[in-house]
């Protein structure tokens, strides 16, 4: 059974993330969405809220793709989280070159800890490539329309949160 781990902060989950999840489903039998506690990033949504939004979107994606998708909050090292969930593959999304430097280092460090876990990079469809949770939150705070960037349920939660 091929298990993939797709880690991130998901603050909140965007259409960029869901596009990557849909693509990852074609590669694995079970996809675990690792929701990082990541208090250092100062998330807008609590861990519980982020997990609930991920679970709601994944239920739809699971029905659509036929792949089992589960959310798994984690606070430890990514490679240890991969071991915890039995993942042989770590999935990451790549946006522009800006993501590359950081991801390059991550792969190197993770490989040094466990060379048997492979990292696979996926690119979202062109119209979703520029989406970043950080920018979505800024746009929403300034009263902009984020309906092209996040699922409808997430947009609702975002507007309720921002007030
Ligand atoms: P963000 O950087 O938007 O806050 P996360 O930290 O939750 O998102 O990112 C989790 C993973 O999803 C990372 O591998 C990130 O590069 C990837 N990702 C996020 N948004 C996109 C997107 N629009 N296209 C491709 N990959 C993405």
Topology (elements, then pairings):
Elements: E1 3-8, H1 15-25, E2 30-36, H2 47-65, E3 68-74, H3 78-85, E4 89-93, H4 97-113, E5 118-122, H5 133-141, H6 152-162
Parallel strand pairs: 1-2, 1-4, 2-3, 4-5
Helix pairs in contact: 1-2
Bound molecules: adenosine-5'-diphosphate.
GO biological process, one term: coenzyme A biosynthetic process
Keywords: ATP-binding, Coenzyme A biosynthesis, Cytoplasm, Magnesium, Nucleotide-binding, Nucleotidyltransferase, Transferase
Catalytic activity: (R)-4'-phosphopantetheine + ATP + H(+) = 3'-dephospho-CoA + diphosphate
Overview of the structural elements:
- This protein is an alpha/beta fold and 163 residues long.
- The protein contains six helices and five strands.
- It has helices at residues 15-25, 47-65, 78-85, 97-113, 133-141, 152-162, and strands at residues 3-8, 30-36, 68-74, 89-93, 118-122.
- Strands 3-2-1-4-5 form a five-stranded parallel beta sheet, sandwiched between helices.
- β4 (89-93), α4 and β5 form a beta-alpha-beta unit.
- α1 (15-25) crosses α2.
- It is globular, with a radius of gyration of 15 Å.
- The termini are far apart.
- The mean pLDDT is 96.
- Bound molecules: adenosine-5'-diphosphate (ADP).
- Adenosine-5'-diphosphate binds at residues 8-10, 14, 16-17, 20, 92-93, 95, 99, 124, 128-129, 131-134.
């Amino acid at each position: 059974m091929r298990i993939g781990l797709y880690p991130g902060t998901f603050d909140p989950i965007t259409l960029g993330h869901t596009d990557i999840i849909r693509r990852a489903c074609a590669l694995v039998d079970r996809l675990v969405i690792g929701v990082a506690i990541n208090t250092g990033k100062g998330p807008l949504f609590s861990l519980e809220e982020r997990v609930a939004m991920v679970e709601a979107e994944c239920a739809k994606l699971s029905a659509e793709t036929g792949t089992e998708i589960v959310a798994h909050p984690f606070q430890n090292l990514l490679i240890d989280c991969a071991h915890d969930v039995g993942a042989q593959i770590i999935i990451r999304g790549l946006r522009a070159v800006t993501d590359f430097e950081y991801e390059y280092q991550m792969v190197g460090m993770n490989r040094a800890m466990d060379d048997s876990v492979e990292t696979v990079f996926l690119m979202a469809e062109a119209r979703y490539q520029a989406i970043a949770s950080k920018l979505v939150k800024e746009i929403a705070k300034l009263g902009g329309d984020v309906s092209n960037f996040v699922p409808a349920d997430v947009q609702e939660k975002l507007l309720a949160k921002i007030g």
